[in-house]
Amino acid sequence: MMKRYLATSAIALCVAGAAHAEGQLNLYVWAESISPDLIAKFSQEHDVQVNVDGYTSNEDLLTKLQAGSSGYDLATPSQHFLRIMIDEGLIQNYGANTLTAYENIDPRWRNQWWDESQEYSIPIAYGTAGFVVNTELYNGPTDSLGHFFEPEGDLVGKIAMLSYPDEVVGAAQLYLGVPFCSEDPAEMKRVLDLLMAQKPAVAVYSSDNIASRLASGEVATHFWWDGEELKARVNGAPFALAMTKEGLVGWIDSMVIPVGAPNYDNAIKFIEFISEPENATEQMNFYAHSSPMTLVEENVVYTKEVAPELYPEVPVEFSRTCSPAAQDLVTRVWTQLLQ
What are the residue ranges of helices labelled H in the chain? Predict the structure, then answer.
């Protein structure tokens, strides 16, 4: 899930000037998600060489950690995968709730179901996924998921969906009123029927090259993420995130320390560092996704006036960690859809 970036391979970043640093820090995070300026600043302040590898799905991260001996000191899973990692013993209890970083978390994001005790994680970013339209190609209504799941006119054959199920199936469930993590085969059959009926109108199921596909006119709408649409829009792309009345699918990513992390102390230092209000603000300005941290408000670039997509007034439903039975139904829906 959450293949939010166009990168298709891992990114290795070694901070310039840190070749002779005393320490190391190995990050495995969403591709292109951490401000290079902040990495350089941390490296200089703490005399640490920071190495960054990027992934494009939670599944990739989970597989890496399940294999063991990853060599990584810090990762940033989304909420439902974070819960899995806690339950499988893949990440460390680092006493997150005893850190200064914990005090900097907006209270509404503390001690949530994915980490009730807030011992395993500190959040770094949150946002939503929904339908993004090229407004030069489509100027019809966008206030309901029905316009996209049961399209007519200009949208037929001009819709693109992501290549994996979590958020797409979640959006279909929002439209139909089917609860997330449903174990009812009949309810999930309704989801499959909706997606199968939409399929002839879908040009491609892909999580790569989204910006170029939208901008070129290959498609008129693409299921995508708020921050990616925002960055493209402020750079001149004619894009808009549809604020559908049924809601948007939400996510929140958090910093965790894998079991066996070779540079535990430096991971703690980095978590504290990037959670400081000044640095959290710079990180939000770089990433263009919402921050769950206390910010220096006068320095925030993406305010509600500039970036309304980060401040949705429609419901937001966060993806959940489902039971094996519920997850099996989602897998069946997706397998049958793409056959």
Answer: 36-46, 58-67, 79-87, 100-103, 146-149, 166-176, 185-198, 210-216, 226-234, 264-275, 277-287, 324-338
Whether 30 and 142 map to the same domain: the answer is no
Q: What gap in Å lies between CA 236 and CA 257, rounded to an integer? A: 38
- Do both 82 and 149 map to the same domain? no
Total structural domains in the chain?
2
Q: What is the pLDDT along the chain (339 residues), one digit of tens a residue?
A: 443 433 333 334 444 333 445 699 999 999 999 999 999 999 999 999 999 999 988 889 999 999 988 899 999 999 999 999 999 999 999 999 999 999 999 999 999 999 999 999 999 999 999 999 999 999 999 999 999 999 998 899 999 999 888 889 999 999 999 999 999 999 999 999 999 999 999 999 998 889 999 999 999 999 999 999 999 999 999 999 999 999 999 999 999 999 999 999 999 999 999 999 999 999 999 999 999 999 999 999 999 999 999 999 999 999 999 999 999 999 999 999 999
Query: In sequence order, which residues have a C-beta less than 8 Å from that of residue 90 and are 6 or more positions away?
Result: 62, 65, 66, 258, 259
Q: Which CA distances in Å does 78 have to 56, 112, 241, 279?
A: 12, 13, 21, 21
Question: Amino acid identity, residue 201?
Answer: A
Q: Is residue 1 part of a domain?
A: no
131 belongs to a structural domain = yes
What 8-state DSSP symbol labels residue 198? Answer: H
* CA distance linking residue 252 with residue 289, whole number of Å: 10
pTM value? 0.89
Structure tokens at 296: 């220096």
